[in-house]
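Q: Structure for this?
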Amino acid sequence: MSRPSPRTVRRLIGLALLVLWEAIPRLGILPELFIPPLTKTLYVLWLDRAIYAAALLVTLYEVAVAMLIACGVGILVGAVVGGVASVRNLMLPVFSSLYAVPIVILYPVFTAWFGIGSESKIAFAGVYGFFPVMLSTAAGIRTIDEQYLLAARSMGANLPQLIGRVVIPASIPTVLAGLRLGGALTIIGVVVSEMLTSADGIGYLVTKNRTTLDSPRVFAAIVIILALSVVFDLAVRRIERRTLIWQTAGRRERPMAGGARGPVPAPSVA
Amino acid sequence: MQHLAHMSAAQNAQAKTAVEVRGLSHVYAGREGAVPALSDIELDVPAGRFVVIVGPSGCGKTSLLMMLAGLRPPSSGTILCDGRPITKPDPARVGVVFQEASLYPWLTAVENVEFPLVLKHAPRAERRARAEAMLKLVGLDGFGTRYPHELSGGMKQRVSIARGLVQDPPVLLMDEPFAALDEQTRMTMGHELLRIWSQTAKTVVFITHSLTEAVYLADEVIVMSARPGRILDRIAIDLPRPRTYQMMATDLFGRLRERIWEQIRTSP
């Protein structure tokens, strides 16, 4: 019998976890207060679907705006910090240190400034997601191979062409990695701030139902947050695959052509 | 495609000296004051000539090439190419092939070759046809859709050469283009370069560390001294063309190589 593929094994493990989720509380191994059975969780999710849908919309709105801010401002600031040496020397140590600060301690300040509505969540999550985007954009631009720029100049590129045709494509892989991390942090920032001080959103539902010890409804909210993170991750991976096609193109189908010696055999294509 | 060789030959026939360097010196600001890098370089490269520059590490060969390419301004002196001064990069007059593969990994081979034409906003069909013709010239017909990571080291440098030639410049500058290749590929690429050169009639200024490569390729070898770089000697390589690998075993080849080595070894 052949060894099952990693993908199959992953799926089996996932399935086993779901079965355990159902079985452990049903068999009385753990009380339902700790882990409500999967079916019960899904059932309350269905019962309260209007409430959860409304809360999800609020959360999605906050995540979307916060991501726009984090990515937009992060890329802009990162480009300046990475591209301009004097700004970099001045600011990069500061930003790197700030990144290490647990920004969540600032959240009470944000609620004081922006209230307990969506604005404080957006501001907090935007700041939270900003740092990885900014730092990786700066790193992506700073680590561009000098040779790429020299070659482009020798071919007559002006500054806009250098930026548009060399700097941007060369830094895309690093920037995308930052967007992935920054986006995930934005989701975390929104949910955490909703859990702390809020009157709406999925995070609020977690806190509210926890205080009434309504475990199935807490887990129902958790399921939605998990789904949100997974969908985000899949979307970013898809974008990465599309944008970075040149890193992997043809690796599977086309074996590398032979050495440079002698006349090179032409492939049938093109 | 028109016959590039004929066009270039006609151009070169008009301007007898492709590259003229007059009183070129360069001083750069080091940590402990001014460091003289190049001192009083005088150089004439006749059109269509294959000139190789050799010298010890740090003799300013690469600095000189950067200035010929218009990528770095000299402290003093002038550089003329086709009778007109070089003050900034001009890929229509001077093509450059760099040491490391400086191809863009996010572009296919043919997109890399047409890159200089894209910068000039040449029409798509025209630049694509031109790039395909260049790939054919360097022996990579049919490899246009490959990305650099799908090509071997030698093939990448072929693409670099095609890119350097795509605007049909009369002068091609090459900064140790084969230094990163293994010995066999390097020999093959040298031979290939001579074939391409004979088909295009370019003026080539080629920098290398390898004395064998220098003698094998050159019409004339220019020996530079250690810093500050000066021209120590100009050695005409009167081996017949086309060059063959067998020539490397001849006495003449060995004597020429020896003479260059003596110059470098005894330079202060």
